[in-house]
Amino acid sequence: MRHSPSGAHVESAVQPRSLPSLAYDGACRVLSGNWTGSSTVPSRALYPHQWSWDSGFIAIGLRHVSPARAQRELETLFAAQWADGRVPHIVFNPEIPLGAYFPSPDFWRSSAAGDKAGAPASVETSGVVQPPVHALAAWLVHQADPAASARRGFLRRLYPRLVAWQRYLTGPRDLGGHGLAAIVHPWESGMDNSPCWDPPLARISPAASGSFHRADLDHGCRADRPTDLDYGRYVRLAGSYRDRGYEDRPGTHPFAVEDPAFNALLIASEYALADIAAALGDEAADPAEHLVRAESLTWALVSRLWSEEEGLFLCRDVLADERLPQRSAAGLLPLVLPGLPEEVAAALLRTARGPHFGLGGPARLVPSYDLTGSGFDPARYWRGPAWFNVNWLLERGMRLHGADLTADALRAEMLRAAVASDFAEYVDPFSGKARGTRDFSWTAALTLDLSLAKDRAGHAGSPTAGVASR
């Protein structure tokens, strides 16, 4: 017998053990080791607090072995939500020493500097956000055990918080005035040092190198991490945002970019909210409102960020009002959307298999950045390595748009790479060699999801099939 993170017994696989069985057991081990009692850290050493989109992906995997713990993962995160609706990208554990991670709570000073924006007084957080995968995660977690979810009032309690989170992003964060959310710091994209950010970051004067200590280099290889110049600019942007009280007025941000991946997850979450509203079944939750909003946002995404010439969605620098030419895996992620025009979805599939991303050719997994780009680096964080959350989303999107054979092959490669790399944070897209930290929680959680999935296709007939219903 083997044990799930919840302590439940799960029947062992028939010998010899299959790859999904090995992946399942390893993933459960990682998630058990990174559980703190109320949430899951991404990594014990490198990331010792709770991260926002990490917890969304972690809950998606946890739902298979402990729906209750998956619910608690999201509830713990949303307990730190600000009054303006934002969900901070880090919720700090007060038991962790300040020097264990930078920027630490004394840098962000959320409860003081964020007071006017509604930062909670009882917990310290960062002041920036991460991509909004949370409504999708909440819906999938509910589906894992609908009866227990209903008894606990999970969706009913979380729904208004999820709506407030979405409205923050489509309200104060619509800095371009065309409906899309803008990120105001590279950290908000989740793809911190993507070459997409190089042009707008070039406008930012970095903080002095001696003014901060990079705790990440105490635990990670320098060649795998962002450069000191990148970090200096990150610190300058974050400090400036803090000193303005985390205010989001247009014209106050020196960095503002519409990111296709961030907005694709925003739209996917509207579809998930439609399913949640339907499940709640009362006047306070209207599915039609979310579906209309999803359609409107999809139209804005295509009109603002789609490049027919590139066969890819591109980021847009809001301040310069121009698309950025760098090709990133972020531009493939709108494939998760059911309302995407058929010709756009077909072009994205061709681009994923083409020379820039190499899927099914030189690349085992989709890289985070263009294989032919001058900024490509197979080792350095988001400048080329393959990440499991990106590939998990693409696997779903491929199935949604009928590319089942490609999705099957990608799923198999993800399982192999996860097991072989000891559930690495990210891997070399060609060789699958481990990069970053090991025993990484979202790698384990999404591997767990893949290892248990027999039929990854969405339910036919659902308006959100393959995105918010499974």
From TrEMBL:
Checking InterPro entries in the record gives:
6-hairpin_glycosidase_sf, 6hp_glycosidase-like_sf, Glycoside_hydrolase_63, MGH1-like_GH
Write down the superkingdom of origin: Bacteria
Domain Mannosylglycerate hydrolase MGH1-like glycoside hydrolase, by residue range, is 47-443
Q: One GO molecular-function annotation for this sequence?
A: Glc3Man9GlcNAc2 oligosaccharide glucosidase activity
Q: Where is the signal peptide?
A: none
Instruction: Note the Pfam families from the entry.
Output: MGH1-like_GH (PF22422)
Q: Which SUPFAM superfamilies match?
A: Six-hairpin glycosidases
Q: What's any GO biological process attached to this entry?
A: protein N-linked glycosylation
Q: Which UniProt keywords apply?
A: Glycosidase, Hydrolase
Family in the record: Belongs to the glycosyl hydrolase 63 family.
Q: What's the protein name?
A: Mannosylglycerate hydrolase MGH1-like glycoside hydrolase domain-containing protein
What organism does the UniProt record list as the source? Streptomyces hoynatensis
